[in-house]
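FAQ: What does the model actually see?

It sees only this:
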Amino acid sequence: MSTVARFLADTIRQTLVEFADGLRQAAPKVLTGLVFLAIAYVGIRVLTGVLRRTLDAVYPDDQRLVVDLGVTIVSVFLWFGAALTLLKIFGMGEIAASLGTAAGFVALGVSYALSNMIADTVAGVYLLRDPDFNPGDEVKSDPVTGTVEAIELRKTRFRNDDGDTVVVANRDVEKKWTRLTGSADE
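And it is asked to produce this:
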């Protein structure tokens, strides 16, 4: 019976010694990782704050969605890079490289799957920035002729001659539209 108790005691003691050694060896990496996270947090907050102020100066208040979209995209990329760097600090560089590669393939697939939505969003930014295309303007676009009611990031709403609201994808509007004479600004 004493051999079983001694075996258990030796196993527990050896486990605790190895655990303490592992903590001692990991402490510098954990401390480095925590310092990196603190610096990354501050850096990302500063960068996204500067980006938000810059975009706020460029875009009017009614186009706040464009500002939020830009800041969110940049923030996601920065935090993903910080996460990969943190893995590298912890000695998991191969995992970081694999995650980076996998994320690239996932992003490629997502961008292909969302290509129409991305085209709508890009066209929406162009339409929102176009000084000749504004709510209240009478416009002829391929599927509709009417008054521009609202320009959103992915779609534009028109009021046709019958009083109906017609919603058109921005990629279709941006392809070809004509501002009719007698519009709101003239």
